[in-house]
Amino acid sequence: MRINFNCMNRVATLVALCLFSVQFALAQSPSAAPAAQQIVAKVDEYMNAAARAKYFNGSVLVARNGQPLISKGYGMANLELRVPNKPQTAFRIGSITKQFTATAIMMLQERRKLNVKEPICKYLENCPAGWQNVTIHHLLTHTSGIPSYTSLPDFGKISTQHFTFADFVDVFRDKPLEFTPGDKFVYNNSGYYLLGLIVEQVSGASYSEFLRGNVFLPLGMKNSGYDDSSTLVPNRASGYYRRKSSFFNADYMNMTIPYSAGALYSTTEDLLIWSRLFTPIRSFHEHRLMKCSSRSIKR
Fold first, then answer.
1. What pLDDT, in 10s, does the model give residues 242-254?
2. Which residues partner with 70 through β-bridges?
């Protein structure tokens, strides 16, 4: 499994999907739910088999009614140093980052700092003529028509380079729209990159600082943040891809490239906290986030 931007860390994505779907299903139909011991036994049996076959290295958390039934690491977080995965192992969460970017935008709307119906050119410098009719809502819903930079033919080469966030927009700024804004849905990383710039412009804080001060710390997500290869991240997993029966170090990617479209890291334990906002048992954590949504932080 090669770790790249479009699947940047498949392990973490699988973990998050497992966490969201199982918790939601069990919460919705408790009468039909299997016993906790059955779930733990079956998950552990399956994941141990996958790890032995070298098909999985990662962490798994399955929760019922917001409480973990099993939270365990399988395989290695670092194969060279023989460091095993554990519930506190931090993984790049790839495009799950977009959930947090969208939340930041909606918090700023709640504070009346912006409106998602407004054109993005109100908040972006050197906005090209083709973007004049693109709104924040179009970016949020992947309906802008702006080409996704991950689809550019030279993306592999670009992904290793360092850019300022503003300068990276030049990579796709002058590309013609692929369709009239609002006409189609096409998954789009460029749109969520631009949303990060809007968060910074409106809030006066960096994207990383805004999420840390307004989401991660208020919710108690102490092991989540913006991934940067120069920053020391406790328990960070190394990236690998699998070829036949062997693992190899993943290709390097400069984290200025995924930015607000895919540069966050987290743990299964922190993602459980986040998932509680979207389940029937969300009230306490939702209250904490909403209470903190009136705060603002300065650069």
1. 888 888 999 999 9
2. 62
pLDDT of residue 104: 98
Residue 226, helix vs strand vs coil: strand
Structural contact between residues 137 and 117, judged by C-beta atoms closer than 8 angstroms: yes
Q: How far is it, in rounded angstroms, from Cα 16 to Cα 18?
A: 5
pLDDT value, residue 222: 95
The active-site residue, picked from 59, 95, 260, 266, is 95
CB atoms within 10 A of CB 165: 17
Per the structure block, which two tokens stand in for 264? 């966050």
Token pair of 245, please? Answer: 């029966």
Residue whose token pair is 């499994």: 1
Q: How many CB atoms lie within 10 A of CB 203?
A: 23
Give the separation between CA 184 and CA 256, rounded to whole angstroms: 28
DSSP 8-state secondary structure symbol assigned to residue 252: P
The identity of residue 71, as a single letter, is S
Exposed/middle/buried for residue 111 (C-beta within 10 Å: 0-12, 13-18, 19+): middle
* Statement: residue 285 has pLDDT above 80: no
Task: Classify the C-alpha dihedral 169-148-161-98 as positive or negative.
Answer: positive
Examine the residue annotation and report whether 95 is marked as an active-site residue of this protein. yes
84 vs 58: CA distance, rounded Å: 9
pTM, to two decimals: 0.83
Query: Contact 140/116 with Cβ under 8 angstroms?
Result: yes
Q: Predicted confidence band at 25 (pLDDT cuts at 50, 70, 90)?
A: very low
